[in-house]
Amino acid sequence: MATSISATGFKGGFGSSIGGEDYAMLVKSVPNRVRVGKPVRLAPMMKNVNEGKGLFAPVVVITRQVIGKKRFNQLRGKAIALHSQVITEFCRSIGADQKQRQGLIRLAKKNGERLGFLA
């Protein structure tokens, strides 16, 4: 292999610049694996999106603050279950099928959101 020395300090032939000592140092300086950090995600907010919306929202919010969140959620669950039972009985009395019953329950939920009962 021919070796040449010039003013720039190049040593060795063309092959030594790729496969020689410089390449070995370059390989050692580069990490084997590149770690990519996880994308930054904000923590989920546990806030009600219906807070303060609707006609009955202020009453609902004040009631929740007065009786406490746990007791309020228990009462809300019982009220929703009772309302679903009323809708089911109504559907039985008029002969509506399961799909129509589910549609009425969804409609009741949307109306409750608009009026502020789910605030």
Automatic annotation (TrEMBL):
Q: What is the lineage of its organism?
A: Eukaryota, Viridiplantae, Streptophyta, Embryophyta, Tracheophyta
Which Gene Ontology cellular component terms are annotated?
chloroplast
Superkingdom of the organism of origin: Eukaryota
One Gene Ontology MF term: electron transfer activity
Q: What is this protein called?
A: Proton gradient regulation 5
What processes does the entry annotate via GO biological process terms? Answer: photosynthetic electron transport in photosystem I; response to high light intensity
